[in-house]
Design a protein that fits this description.
single chain, 5-stranded mixed β-sheet, 16 helices
Length: 509
């Protein structure tokens, strides 16, 4: 249920607008246009810090009646001060809004970050929830998550399970062990929900220009790896849809990547094949020739009506064909992505999709919850004056949560385990995106990129390089342009930016 407000007013010396916005969005409290009717005339929010107290007050007028309430929390001085104050502001406001408007709690409470596993792993590094024998006390950790962030205990337990299971992978890395990400920004079509910086595949001359620039980017990154004596642990080619490249360019790209990065120490080489209609016998042969060890076939759904509606140009039959051709061609791990909360779909539809996918026996199944992202066709259509939300027939949050619960039950029953988890804004069901795999089939790259403890060298359009500076306790980043024209024009600048952040942390060998 949405709570509509004519005006939201913030008071106080500190600017907590960002975290106040997170709480209000999660509880679906939003401002409306001046000429629209609203449940609440004004909502005034005041935050004060007095000594160790964080005091939050709300005041609002609804149906001619003025209401006010206050919540106070005490700062834990053992925590990092800024983060602790932000958490308590969110906690106070969350409790006040729930009580004032009679709302139901959301599954993750006030835990709003993209990478919640990092919080748990930091606690473990600091010794919290670790027994004298060095074993993680999952119950103790789960209870703290639920208490600190007001999450459901089931979500706290899931988060703890994933966080602990990732530690052996995270700890395989050393200071000079890195991963390489290559961004290929092309797709055959743009999906309704997509906000990724991808482009419908251009004409051959533009693709050739991109390949020339990408080669320069690859060679510069390879020189950095050589200069610092890095060992590459994983290679990940994503996008976009890398297999959207025509056969000749696809094989050329794989050859360059393999030649420059795929040495003896590489433990995983992943290519997102994504759309089944882009997977051909020639591309499968190239994947095998150049040593790829992990691929994806992403149906999203196994209902043709939904595929057509969201703008995918493959069929359900294409999914099965592509999967079986890949499975028979190589000894690689195969991942399949599904989306819950798609337009027009309900629990029974998702049950049918999951059944069909599990009949193929993938090594890894990732369950994404539909996110209405800024810049997507779906978000823009919902924001205009022509389309109505009901035109898209999106399932309610409760239905989406039922889909996620069903997936967890069935996947556990098939001996899949949850191994990576992240969250996004505007997610259906207010839940999570979560990867499930057979034991030993975890994607190393997925774990490392989410942990943000390993250096990731980004190559290609929209790629980002991330270098953890453990001494300064910060993450250095360099971003390549999302816009293809800008990336092609300014490649020297992006190469220099990447080189600069590496030089701040590492010394040449």
């Amino acid at each position: 249920m949405d709570i509509t407000v004519k005006k939201i007013i913030l008071h106080g010396k500190e600017d907590f607008s960002k975290i106040v916005g997170e709480v209000l969005r999660s509880l679906k409290v939003k401002e409306v246009a001046d000429n629209d009717t609203a449940d609440v005339d004004d909502l005034e929010i005041t935050n004060e810090i007095i000594g160790r107290k964080v005091i939050t007050r709300i005041k609002f007028t609804a149906y001619g009646e003025e209401n006010s309430s206050v919540e106070t929390s005490i700062i834990n001085l053992k925590e990092r001060y800024g983060a602790e104050v932000n958490r308590l502001v969110k906690r106070n406001l969350y409790l006040l809004i729930l009580d004032a408007f009679g709302l139901e709690p959301v599954p993750y409470g006030i835990l709003h970050g993209v990478r919640p596993t990092k919080i748990v792993q930091r606690w473990i590094d600091e010794g919290f929830g670790v027994t004298r024998q060095g074993v993680a006390d999952r119950g103790k950790i789960s209870r703290r998550i639920a208490e600190d962030f007001l999450t459901d205990i089931d979500k706290a337990s899931l988060l703890t399970e994933v966080s602990v299971s990732q530690l052996p992978i995270i700890r395989t890395g050393g200071k000079k062990i890195v991963s390489v990400y290559i961004g290929i920004p092309f797709c055959k079509t743009r999906c309704l929900y997509c906000s990724f910086p991808s482009f419908v595949l251009p004409k051959e001359n533009k693709v050739a220009e991109f390949m020339t620039t990408l080669t320069k980017d690859i060679e510069a990154a390879a020189e950095e790896i050589k200069r610092y004596g890095f060992r590459v642990q994983t290679i990940y080619i994503g996008g976009g849809t890398p297999t959207a490249l025509p056969e000749q360019f696809f094989a050329e790209m794989l050859e360059k990547v393999s030649d420059k990065f795929n040495g003896a120490g590489v433990e995983e080489f992943t290519v997102e094949c994504g759309r089944p209609d882009t997977i051909t016998a020639e591309k499968i042969a190239a994947l095998k020739k150049f040593g790829v060890t992990r691929v994806s076939v992403n149906p999203q759904t196994m209902h043709q009506r939904t595929l057509d509606f969201i703008g995918r140009c493959h069929t359900v039959e294409d999914v099965t064909r592509a999967f079986n051709e890949l499975r028979s061609a190589g000894d690689w791990k195969i991942n399949m992505d599904l989306i819950i909360g798609l337009p027009g779909e309900r629990l029974a539809d998702f049950q049918e999709t999951l059944t069909k996918v599990l009949e193929l026996a993938p090594d890894d199944v990732t369950i994404h919850s539909l996110a209405i992202k800024r810049g997507s066709k779906l978000q823009m259509n919902l924001a205009d004056d022509i389309n109505r939300p009901e035109d898209f027939d999106l399932p309610e949050d409760e239905e989406v949560r039922a889909m996620a619960d069903y997936a967890a039950k069935i996947l556990r029953g098939k001996n899949y385990l949850p191994y990576y988890l992240y969250r996004q804004g505007y997610m259906s069901g207010q839940i999570e995106n979560i990867g499930w795999c057979r034991r030993g089939a975890e994607s190393i790259y997925n774990v490392q990129i989410m942990s943000e403890r390993q250096t990731i060298i980004g190559v290609g359009a929209a790629a980002s390089s991330k270098v953890p500076d453990n001494f300064a306790r910060k993450l250095l980043t360099a971003f390549n342009a999302k816009d293809l024209t800008t990336y092609l024009r300014d490649i020297d600048k992006y190469i220099a930016n990447r080189s600069n952040i590496l030089a701040q942390v590492y010394l040449p060998k």
